[in-house]
Every structure is written in C-alpha cells, then in structure tokens.
C-alpha cells in the first residue's frame, strides 16, 4: 500500500431505551491520511476538523490483523480506545466540555487486508460511566489514493 491513502470511517449505533431500540442515522467521514506498516501492525494517521471550533483532532489508528483495533485521539479531544474481540476496554474520553469514562465491549472484530485496501469492522457495546448507552458498529476503509481516484 502507498503512503498516501484515503480513510473512510462510518459508524452506526442503536440506542438503548426503556421502551424501544432506536437506530440512529449512520455517520460517514472520508479524509486524506498517511499509512505505514511497522512491526506487523498497520498505522493510519489523519487529522479531523471540528465544526464550530478552532483546531483539529489528530488521530492514529493501529490495526493488528484479527486481533486489535486501537484508536488514539489527541488535540481537542483525547482518548485511547482499544477494540479486542470478547474484551472490555475502559478509557477516559476528554472533550472540550469535560471528561467521560467510556467502556467498549467488542463483540466482533474483522480485518481484511489486501494489496491496496484494508477493511475493518468492529461491533461493540458502548457504555458511559458504567451505563450501557448503545450497541455500535464502526467500519474503516483505508485505500491507496491512486486506487480510489481511479474509481472516481
């Protein structure tokens, strides 16, 4: 894979409610990114602008095939989230409005690595301060820029 890539992240969550489960609208973001492979792990670095606020969030995604998805955010928000199948991970999620104690219990993790593309899927339960908030899905696609531009 080339160093210059595009990353597309889409997320969906199903909110918990006493009366019903509600599916929210999916959110999808595509951004230019930098890719490298080191010590058996795939790394993707990109910056995320925040609407209505000066500054950005610097993101580092680390992927170890079949084992781990790790997301580190720094800047306007700060966190270090781990997604490992059948494991619970708890972390502090710092925002400009305050900090939250966030837990992710990863139920499913799939990683598909090809020559010019990486696809990641994680299904997990999300809790805040010990209270279950939602069941969530995140999909990450990393593709070489020359491949994605040829498709356009």
Low-confidence stretches: none
Rg from alpha-carbon coordinates: 16 Å
Derived structural class: mainly beta
**H/E element order:** EEEEEEEEEEEH
Q: What's the architecture, going by CATH?
A: Beta Barrel
At the fourth CATH level, what is the homologous superfamily?
Calycin beta-barrel core domain
The CATH class:
Mainly Beta
Total number of distinct structural domains: 1
Strand content: over 45%
Average pLDDT level: 89
Number of strands: 11
Named CATH topology: Lipocalin
How many helical elements?
1
Distance between the termini: 19 Å
Q: Helical proportion?
A: under 10%
Biggest beta sheet attributes: 11 strands, antiparallel
General form? globular
Notes on the protein architecture:
Helix content is 5%, strand content 71%. It is mainly β. Strands 1, 2, 3, 4, 5, 6, 7, 8, 9, 10 and 11 form an eleven-stranded antiparallel beta sheet that branches. Strand 6 (68-75) and strand 7 (79-83) form a beta hairpin. The longest helix is centred in the last third of the chain and has 7 residues, at 145-151. The model has no long low-confidence stretch (mean pLDDT 89).
Observed structural traits:
single chain; 152 residues; mainly beta; Lipocalin; eleven-stranded antiparallel beta sheet; 1 helix; 5% helix
What's the arrangement of secondary structure elements?
Blueprint: E1 4-15, E2 22-23, E3 27-38, E4 41-49, E5 56-64, E6 68-75, E7 79-83, E8 88-95, E9 98-114, E10 117-128, E11 131-144, H1 145-151
């Amino acid at each position: 894979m080339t160093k210059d890539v595009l990353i597309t992240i889409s997320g969906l969550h199903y909110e918990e409610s006493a009366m019903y489960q509600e599916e929210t609208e999916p959110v999808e973001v595509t951004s230019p990114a930098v890719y490298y492979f080191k010590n058996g792990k795939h790394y993707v670095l990109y910056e995320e602008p925040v609407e209505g606020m000066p500054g950005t969030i610097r993101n580092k995604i680390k992927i170890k095939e079949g084992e781990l998805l790790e997301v580190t955010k720094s800047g306007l928000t700060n966190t270090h989230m781990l997604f490992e199948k059948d494991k619970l991970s708890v972390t502090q999620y710092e925002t400009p409005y305050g900090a939250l104690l966030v837990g992710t219990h990863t139920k499913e993790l799939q990683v598909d690595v090809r020559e010019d593309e990486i696809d990641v899927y994680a299904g997990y339960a999300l809790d805040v301060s010990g209270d279950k908030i939602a069941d969530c899905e995140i999909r990450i696609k990393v593709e070489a820029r020359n491949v994605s531009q040829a498709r356009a």
